[in-house]
Amino acid sequence: MAYIGRGIENLVNTQKLDAITPSTATGAGPYNLTKDSVAFVPASADQLIISINGVIQYGNFTVNSSTVTFDAALTDSDVCDFIYQMGTGLLTTPVDGSVNTVQLANNAVTTAKILDANVTNAKLTNSSITINGSAVALGGTVTIGETKPTITSVSPNTITNSQTSITITGTNFVNGINVEAIATNGAIVQADTVTFNSATSVSAAFTITTDGTYYLRLENPDGNAVRSSTALLTVSDAPTWSTAAGSLGSAAAGSAISFTVAATSDSAVTYAKTSGTFPGGVTIDSNTGVISGTESGATSETIYSFTITATDAEGQTADRAFSITITVGINNGGQFN
């Protein structure tokens, strides 16, 4: 009896394919399987019902992708009545590239699926993000490196409490860089002024009232910063002379001489004659500042002028000019009648 109701193609999990056209030239096949003139890939040969000349074919054909090949050759006189895919065929894997955005429900793709190893970079490269002004594909590899400044050296490395400019050398300096001195107790002193010389040189003027050693910290406007691993800057009082400049006194030629010069600082002070001339036979003790010896060589009154440099343990110096006068007595006698 006739079937009354909806067509079989409307039943669940059933699809009606386009009928093939048997031909003597093609023979057993392969014949293209299509639905609405679009290539169709069945789940398997077992899912297909093919009727040729009113006879249901079963087990006498094979399927390869979207083609079917029969065990026996067909001819021009044969007629394909219909082709249906039945059962679970509708649950087969979609054809490559056939799933679009509209087929996906909102929120259907979760983070877990995005992180799955089967989601390849190739599927992500159609989108990109921008890092530091450059577009980077989501499936690409991004290396984000920080360009931090570095410190190589500072000159001078010892300053007094008066405002002093130092030059810091290093790398990756940027105009607008900030410079700080950090005491070993954590106190921070901001540079009075900072001058950007180049990517490798910065000048900073400091007025630091507390003696001690200081780390240096430099920070670029983008927040990248460096702090020296050691205390590079020393703040120390330079030597101060307690002996007045000028003449230390006089001594007779050939006599023993002893004069003392003195300077004070926050560390040990040493002394040295850095210019001028001592009387013959006279030297200075570098540790005590005593100028002594037995004068030799003077034949007439002579003023010996010289400069003594006081140097403290931090290498700071102070110069002072002194003199010693050597006198010569009257050695020739005379007789008057």
Entry keywords:
337 residues; mainly beta; 6-stranded mixed sheet; 4-stranded antiparallel sheet; 1% helix; 43% strand; rod-shaped; disordered C terminus
Q: Kindly state the mean pLDDT as a whole number?
A: 86
The global form is rod-shaped
How many H/I helical runs? Answer: 1
Q: Rg from C-alpha positions?
A: 51 Å
Biggest sheet overview:
6 strands, mixed
As for the number of domains, it is: 4
What share of the residues does DSSP label as strand, in percent? 35-45%
CATH architecture of the largest domain: Sandwich
CATH class of the largest domain: Mainly Beta
**CATH topology-level fold name of the largest domain:** Immunoglobulin-like
Helix share of residues?
A: under 10%
User: Quick one: how many beta strands?
Assistant: 30
Can you put this structure into words, describing what you see?
It is rod-shaped and about 160 Å long. The protein is 1% helix and 43% strand. It has four domains: 84 residues, no CATH class; 37 residues, no CATH class; 85 residues, Immunoglobulin-like, CATH 2.60.40; 88 residues, Sandwich (Immunoglobulin-like), CATH 2.60.40.10. By secondary structure, the protein is mainly beta. Strands 13, 15, 16, 19, 20 and 21 form a six-stranded mixed sheet that branches. Strands 1-9-5-6 form a four-stranded antiparallel sheet, with no helix packed on it. Strands 12-14-18-17 form a four-stranded antiparallel sheet, with no helix packed on it. It is built from one helix and 30 strands. The N and C termini lie far apart (185 Å). The C terminus is likely disordered.
